[in-house]
Design brief:
This protein is α+β, with helices and mostly antiparallel strands. Among the domains are: 51 residues, Orthogonal Bundle (Ribosomal Protein S4 Delta 41, Chain A, domain 1); 88 residues, Structural Genomics Hypothetical 15.5 Kd Protein In mrcA-pckA Intergenic Region, Chain A. It has 10 helices and 5 strands.
């Protein structure tokens, strides 16, 4: 599985907003973005004042979404092609596809403190979809799917502790039950209002359609 490496706090500074790539730490005083909001690099302060080109505005919107969901270029293009072929608005379809990635669902349910930790839970085989182990973070869930944990006490205890510390609320297209083994159900296909990042999908569509 490909990974995005490097200092993740630099990505937040580049986009000028918190992308919550370090989970709970992003809501504390230790968050690097809160302490230093200028773009990374020796000319960061100057570049913040410079006027961005039209292409730059479109590109930054795409890069922001890629960094937020932890998706690389090749996979992002695949999702865009799926969104174009589907009926309806391409931008809305694209964000819906990204929201239904298994690593995002695990994170939005509160099982992982960040999408990176959620990907680790999945790749290590701790996540079940409809009682079948799925170790592919990019797996796309569908309405009616049940996402649960493998019955291992140490993992269940870890996830329960993460749920207790979680700041974000479970979105309306999901429902979480906190029994002996926490699980979540996908109620419906996510819509634009369910997306947890401020984004202009149309800018991404205009860029990728060229």
């Amino acid at each position: 599985m490909a990974r995005i490496l490097g200092a993740v706090c630099r990505k937040c500074r580049r986009e000028g907003m918190k992308l919550f790539l370090k989970g709970i730490r992003c809501n504390t005083e230790r968050c690097a973005f809160s302490r230093r909001q200028t773009p990374p690099g020796m000319h960061g302060a100057q570049s913040k004042r410079s006027k961005m080109t039209d292409y730059g505005i479109h590109l930054r919107e795409k890069q922001k979404v890629k960094n937020f969901y932890g998706v690389l270029e090749k996979q992002f293009r695949k999702y865009f092609d799926l969104a174009e072929r589907a009926s309806g608005n391409t931008g809305t379809n694209l964000m819906s596809i990204l929201e239904t990635r298994l690593d995002n669902i695990v994170y939005r349910l509160g099982f992982g403190a960040s999408r990176a930790q959620s990907r680790q839970l999945i790749s290590h085989g701790h996540i079940l979809v409809n009682n079948v182990r799925v170790n592919i973070a990019s797996y796309l869930v569908r309405p009616g799917d049940v996402v649960s944990l493998k019955n291992r006490k140490n993992i269940i205890d870890l996830v329960k502790a993460t749920i207790q510390e979680a700041v974000q609320q479970v979105p309306e297209f999901l429902v979480r039950t906190e029994d002996d083994i926490p699980q979540g159900v996908v109620l419906r296909k996510p819509v634009q209002e369910d997306v947890s990042i401020i984004v202009q999908p149309q800018l991404i569509v205009e860029l990728c359609s060229k």
